[in-house]
Design brief:
Helix content: over 70%
Radius of gyration: 46 Å
Number of strands: 0
Strand content: under 5%
Largest sheet: none
Order of helices and strands: HHHHHHHHHHHHHHHHHH
Number of helices: 18
Length: 424
């Protein structure tokens, strides 16, 4: 019988148990029939109508058959229960030794099926890389794999837990940055940037935007100069002063934009020296690091991460609803790329080695866990149920021991009768 109680595991296939039970009952009747036949022969040997020359021979054969049948009945019955319910020592062996049997079965499985050398050889024969390559190369299988992955993603992208996750990531980021010396990393990043080809386009872009801003705010400068001027100062002088200020600022911005102007050269020299200044821990470096830690702190990073996760989730879910979405396309591309890469023998060999190494490193833990699982599962079953199921699966063959004991006993009885007559 199947049980839904997880605390008392049981073997499966209740329908099979019914068939095994009927088969066991049939073979019990066969063994019992042989014993009854021997008992009938013994009874017949005492009948008055039995010829005197036949009765002793029949009695010897029947008695020996009864002794053999009864002895084997006792032996078979004593495995699973006390014969006739009598408290005879060394009977009911299976119920009394259930835990030892469970440990023995677990040890047998461990020794015969979980031996590392044997399993590693099986992994090599499987050739996991070839199997994966074949799966990814087949369009139908690849479509099924992509559908499987795409079907799993919505469940992983639920809104539940977004805020706690963002807060946890923010706290972890802030804690890590507070303990780390960021000067080498920031200095390295700055050094890479100022020595890259991206510096000049960025400086020109910033300068152009500032120049455009100054041009668009000429009226603001003129109004500011006029507002600060004396009442008796002619407006033409105010305008000329404002124009002079604007042109000076624009000229300086143009100089900063150019790597050939003195001001532009000074700016670039300062930028090239900035990484060393940050690495040495200058005041500017401290301000930069404080600003970085403030930006990555929970108060700022938490909401940012929450918004980022929410935006990514919503975009991903919307994309997954489309059969021609970018995510599905990316998954198809990844699968196709992997299939192509695995056509190369070095890639397949390396993947097989990685699988074998991972399997070998994990096998000791798996091996012990499987052995413990088998032993615990068997020990968790009810003793009576464990005994009944074991008897169902081996009891049929044990009945042949009873049949053979009866027949062999009868044959031996007959041989001994003949020998006794010949000797004596």
């Amino acid at each position: 019988m199947k049980s839904s109680d997880q605390t008392s595991p049981s073997l499966p296939d209740a329908a099979d148990d019914d068939g095994l039970s009927r088969d066991l009952s049939r073979h019990r009747w066969m063994a019992g029939g042989c014993l009854a036949l021997a008992a009938g022969g013994w009874a017949a040997s005492h009948a008055p109508f039995m010829p005197p020359g036949v009765a002793p021979a029949l009695r010897a054969v029947a008695e020996a058959g009864m002794v053999g049948g009864l002895a084997d009945w006792f032996a078979v019955t004593a495995l699973f229960r006390r014969p006739l319910g009598l408290p005879i020592p060394h009977t009911a062996l299976v119920p009394r030794n259930r835990d030892r049997i469970a440990d023995g079965i677990a040890a047998y499985i461990d020794r015969e099926f979980l031996e590392p050398a044997m399993l590693v050889e099986q992994v090599r024969r499987m050739d996991p890389a070839a199997r994966i390559a074949g799966l990814l190369a087949d369009p139908t299988d690849r479509d099924k794999l992509v559908d499987l992955v795409a079907g799993m993603l919505p469940g992983l992208l639920t809104k539940q837990g977004d805020a706690p996750l963002a807060q946890a990531l923010g706290r972890a980021l802030a804690a890590g940055l507070s303990l780390a010396d960021l000067r080498p990393a920031v200095a390295g990043a700055l050094r890479h940037f100022v020595n890259s080809d991206a510096l000049e386009p960025l400086l020109r872009e910033v300068a152009d935007r500032l120049i455009h801003l100054v041009h668009s705010k000429r009226g603001f400068v003129e109004a500011a100069v006029a507002g600060k001027s004396r009442w008796w100062m002619p407006s033409s002088v105010d305008k000329s002063l404002a124009d002079t200020i604007n042109e000076a600022v624009l000229g300086h911005l143009w100089d900063l934009r150019s790597p050939h102007a003195p001001a532009g050269q000074e700016l670039r020299q300062w930028l090239r020296a900035l990484p060393d200044e940050v690495a040495d821990g200058s005041e500017l470096a401290q301000r930069l690091l404080e600003a970085l830690r403030e930006f990555t702190g929970p108060a700022v990073a938490g909401p940012l991460l929450h918004d980022l996760l929410s935006g990514l989730r919503d975009a991903a879910l919307a994309d997954l609803d489309r059969t021609d979405g970018h995510i599905r396309g990316a998954l198809h591309g990844i699968a196709g790329s992997l299939a192509s890469a695995m056509q190369e023998p070095p890639v397949r060999d390396r993947l097989n080695q990685a699988v074998e190494q991972a399997f070998t490193s994990a096998l000791p833990r798996w091996r012990q866990a499987i052995r413990d699982f088998v032993a615990r599962t068997l020990k968790a079953q009810d003793v009576g149920e464990f005994t009944r199921r074991l008897e169902l699966r081996v009891g049929r063959d044990l009945q042949y021991i009873r049949i053979n004991g009866t027949l062999l006993g009868a044959a031996i009885g007959g041989v001994l009768y003949v020998l006794n007559g010949w000797v004596g």
